[in-house]
From TrEMBL:
<keyword id="KW-0548">Nucleotidyltransferase</keyword>
<dbReference type="GO" id="GO:0031380">
    <property type="term" value="C:nuclear RNA-directed RNA polymerase complex"/>
</dbReference>
<dbReference type="InterPro" id="IPR057596">
    <property type="entry name" value="RDRP_core"/>
</dbReference>
<dbReference type="GO" id="GO:0003723">
    <property type="term" value="F:RNA binding"/>
</dbReference>
<keyword id="KW-0808">Transferase</keyword>
<keyword id="KW-0694">RNA-binding</keyword>
<dbReference type="GO" id="GO:0030422">
    <property type="term" value="P:siRNA processing"/>
</dbReference>
<dbReference type="InterPro" id="IPR007855">
    <property type="entry name" value="RDRP"/>
</dbReference>
<keyword id="KW-0696">RNA-directed RNA polymerase</keyword>
<dbReference type="GO" id="GO:0003968">
    <property type="term" value="F:RNA-directed RNA polymerase activity"/>
</dbReference>
<feature type="region of interest" description="Disordered">
    <location>
        <begin position="110"/>
        <end position="169"/>
    </location>
</feature>
<dbReference type="Pfam" id="PF05183">
    <property type="entry name" value="RdRP"/>
</dbReference>
<comment type="similarity">
    <text>Belongs to the RdRP family.</text>
</comment>
<protein>
    <recommendedName>
        <fullName>RNA-dependent RNA polymerase</fullName>
        <ecNumber>2.7.7.48</ecNumber>
    </recommendedName>
</protein>
<feature type="domain" description="RDRP core">
    <location>
        <begin position="453"/>
        <end position="909"/>
    </location>
</feature>
<feature type="compositionally biased region" description="Polar residues">
    <location>
        <begin position="134"/>
        <end position="168"/>
    </location>
</feature>
Amino acid sequence: MDERPSIEGFEKLLGELREEFGLEIKPRSAHLSSVERHKSGTRDDLYNKLRQLHFCNQETLPGSIETFRRQVQQLGLPGRQQQSVAAHQTSRENLFWRILVSAERQPHQSVKRSVDGTARSVVGRLPNGGRANESPSRLGEQSPQPYQRQSSIVAEADSTFTSSTSVDRSFESRTNEIHAASNVQPGIQKSTHVCSGHPGSTSEFLLAAEEFRKYFASSPESRRFEICPRASGLRSMESRLEGVWCEHSRIEGQELLLTRKAADLQCTSSQDVAFPIAWEIWRFLKHAGVDESKYNMMQSRINKWCDQKEFRSDHASMEIFKKGLPHPTDEHVWKIAMERSRDKSKAQGKDQGKDVVLTGKLLLNESKNGPGYLFRPNPLKLDRSHRLGRKYGADRFLEVEMESPSITTSEICHSNPDCLSVKMLCQWLVGNDHVFLGRRWVPFFLNDVKSKKRNKRKSNGLSRTYETVVLESMQIHTGNRLFGLEGKTEMADGIGQCSRSVLHKVAEALNYPTPPPTAFQARIGGAKGVWTVDLQDDGEQDWIRTYQSQEKWKCDATDEHHRTIEVVSWPRLAKPARLNEQFIRILDEQAKDRQKMRDTIAHHLKRSFITEVEDLIEAFHDVDKLRQVVHRYKQSRANDPDGEEIPFVGGLPDSCEDILCQFADVGFRPDKLTLMFEGYRKFAGKILERLRDRAHISIPQSTTLLMTADFQSILEEGEVHISLDGTSELSMPELGIDILVGRSPAHLPSDIQKVRAIFHPKLRGLTNQAVFSTKGKTPLASLLSGGDYDGDQALFIFDADIVDNFENAPMRDDPGLDPIKMGFLPRLGLTVKELRDSNPNFELTSRTYIYLGFLFNMPGSLLGIVTKHKETECDKNGSISDDFAISMSNLLSYLVDRRKQGFFFSQQDWGRFRERVSTKRKIDAVSLPAKNSTDQMVNGVKTARPYDEDLTRLYNCWEKAFENSAVAKEVRVHLNRELTTLEHYWDTLRPGDGNFKSFSAVACEKWAAIAPPKTLQTEDLVISLLVPEPSEALSGWSLLKASLTFKKFYEKKPKLPWRVAGQQLLYLKCVRTAERSGGMPFFLTSKAYMSYRPRKSMVARLAEEAVDAEMQ
């Protein structure tokens, strides 16, 4: 058997070449001068070429070395034994280089060859004995699919990378991961890079590591990736990536901005100006497309910029920003950012545990000129903090969102598909310090923005969590592992225990109402998972117990950040669940009586659909019912401690659901106001589309619960303890019955199991969770699509018609249906230790590690494509238990954790796999009623119109009361003129790129800035309007302006008044509605409004009263 290519074998080869020919072949040092770098160029090229051939194409090496030996003898070039001189050495190097390049270009000959110790075959490392360039894990003509967004987190670097803190050193023990999904069908997108563009085997990753070391060791001037063949006028990839952050090294005046002392600037710390101001100026410049060199600091106004209105007003008046400013930062966020720039202490109250976050987007530059990407900073935002942000400061981390570079970078090249796009971008990102805003930034983590599973290794430190209790080292215990019958399988994977005291303190830190939750998903130190209360604890001591299965990396327990319980989530109130298509397929497959099961599911589907449609129709005519329906569907913030503010865009809430609720609250109805009618039709259409397309069926006797383990070993194998608290919406049957339990994603027939649900008195303290038995050979969680107890939730079905008609599927363990045993999914066999051993330089090793992590994770996942193909074919075949379905399901189970496990799986592999497992009756479709439900719902809405007299009444009354006033006349003329100017802005500058939020916010700002003429602001009539009561936004002037805005534009531009003056118009409507009912308006704070939800009993009572009134 051939040896696998190794570093040792490669070094031996270099030693023999040095001994026989005197060739000093070695990589170029990072510490050479520019002259020395130039002299060492050929040796460096030889080193990399030999390394490439050694690991990836050894067929050419023996013949090339023999040809070189023969020509050296023929030309009389002295070797090492003949005391060669430098000139002869250079000649030998050039000769060897030409021979290697020439041999590599020759077509490959399939002949047997003998391999000596200096050039061992790579066959042993590849599946099926293939060569590296024939490995199925290489990328073929299909590239990862487009439209996948990647998220990169960039940390501010210290003065030297090697002297940075434990953030950098943590690279040694953590795995960089990314999860992505694509809905693009295979074969649609033409390849944008070839095999050499992205490594597909361990050997190629070793070569990529060496290429990166060469890149990193080179001088910045020499870092140029030439496009071959070189086309006229084309620029190198690296040159197009220059200038992405800033066209110039600094903003004029920027250094002053970052270094002025607190004596001159009231908003600053003792060291420098608030960083948020620098960020916003940079954002303005990027938005306007203005060169930084054209910006001049308004030094006399800097001390006013703690007030965002003053700050934006000053910049809006600048000529370079005449096209307008971008969307403003939320006022609350701005105030917090400025406060924290002065005081770094932790925030208290509702903002406790939150940080001001820096984010932005890298957008592909469609122009052939300028940088390849355009960076667009986002407004500052408030979000939950993460561990690294709490330790080092949130402003040291920047989250950058970008398109999948495997597609976009080839477009930057504007050349043929041979562009090494992914490698280039990764080398540029990781191999350079990116300097902007007076700081150096270094990328170190990559993730997919759609990924919800951010609890892996390094992302432990970046998971946004709730910081709660800090424990002492002695209060963190390590528990003994809990094994099954044969002592091999971990029965409580991912779960630990804590004391009652700790649980109460965690609940208090979360402001959780009593009683506290009995479990929570969290991180502490290097551990992640779920912790449940120890029911045998007396509650007097603080402690937490972690287990080996929870420990993901080692950390320093002396750091309090590693001793803080960081909560991710906790059990919610149980409520009826919905079945997705995957569960429906398994229920159909495993039914004893398939037709009866289909009838049962069809009954629930029709009942669920008809109920939803009827509710939507009723809500259209009843605003009380409307709020209940909207509350059911909108993304709930009731259980989120952060959800205390409604996000606004201009004068209205950001979401359609919140707009409908606010309109309904002040007395509007969808069948009376056109704008509300359009919003409700959009909302209802989205709900009906989701009901039809996704077929999520509501089952009243079902729920979703957190899976936990029985540490006391009370439950027998196959038993599940379920206990709900009294506030649950679910009506539970008497326990001691069979139930079904499943977990998404559910692909195998065995991913739903029938078990026995019981209530055990000794476990009654564990509520709103499902406690699984720890007896037996295999934990129940692992039978449910490979689940565990680190936070996974499961679906539980109690409906007797479904449960009694279901039988468990046997577990199939057929090697012929396992993709790995079929020769697919080779694994990346490269470790951090190998990188460290090959180069002792810590900085270079760390950068190489990050580079390889980025390189491995950049390409998109095929998980979505494979899932769609599997479900389509299974529907055609009418089975999910045949060999095809099992093979595909096994593949999907590997692809879910492909990056975690280091599997290679390319488009080419996917094509070969389809051929291997390629395969007639589709499951009868359940017809959905109310095909034209949207039309039915809006019948008789001809009464809806854009006008409402309650909104124009204020202006009409004011105009009539002061019709003979010269001052009032001048105010009317001025206000109409200003609103006409705003109308022009709305018409001419509304962007066509979909950035409506930014535009609306700017329009709202302009509307708010409209003030009475300065010459009239001393008149009594105007003074009375400008009194800021009850607030500036609701002053007489603001309300009068809103009323005229609506009157002027309600017909020709119906959205304009609502987007710029929505809150004022809602106030006017609310007051008039209350007057007609003989009462006063009822006011709520934002926090109270967020917790406000309609009661079903109240809605039912109001409905009955309406019916009675109609009958009378």
